[in-house]
Write a structure and sequence with these properties.
two-stranded parallel ribbon; 11 strands; about 290 residues; Aminopeptidase; seven-stranded mixed sheet; single chain; 9 helices
Length: about 290
Amino acid sequence: MSENHLNFTVNYNRLKIFDEIGTDDIKYPLVLSVPHKGQVFPEEFLQTTAVGQAELRRNEDAFVDELVSDAAKQGIPMIAMNIARAFIDVNRDKIEIDPTMFYNYPHPELSMGRRCRVGLGVVHRVTAQNHPIYKGLLDYNEVMARFEKVYDVYHKRLQQLIDKVLKKFGMCFVLDCHSMPSEICSLMLDTQKIDFCLGTLFEQSCLEEMHAFFKSGLEKKNYYISDNCPYSGAYITFNYCQPRRKIYTMQMEVNRGLYMDEQCYKKNDCFSTVCNDISQNIFDFANFLLDLKK
């Protein structure tokens, strides 16, 4: 990486960090999290990047908030990140940071995690095409501001919603909603592509009957479901999972090829059908949870 030092300050007052739906009148013990749908790139950030917005968006979970919004409008609270994942990834732990990205990193004794080694830590070093994002080295203090002004804001609100649901119903299920490239889905199985992947930390993040109900609902609509492969659950699924307190989590990944043209980032002709199927399954699951707690 170039030794050019990138010094810039983002005006966070101009940014709306997240959107939310259904958070005023919560009717079900379920919270929807959509951490990777963000399309907002701070102007100051874009001036330091070595690639354009089109490539920066390649790991974005496009339209996922829309896929689940009909369910959210039925009284299922949803929080969706507006800030682009390439700027900061709220589905990573804060410690997943790459020291080689900074000219003034203060903790050289700490080793980087697995995701950092491939450039996809909490602050991404490379794009989905493995191209360097930045023209030089970052200021560690600037990235700490990203944590305070974006990362912490999202997680604080998510925690508030979980606490609110837990207080009202005595349990809470967090469904972390994502999309996955169709190319990955096709490579995973020789006989049939994956339509949905449900990550439960290998059956650790929720009760089996919860996972089974959600899965069977999709299977009845003729979708092929894979469990924990290629995704078993990332930071949000792990961090908020507390079964002993009746807080359960699951990561849902939707094959992008089902509902969009991945080359031009536009909805395809099946979008409405997939949207209705997902929202109906979430709504049915919400009612299942409501009965389960009785």
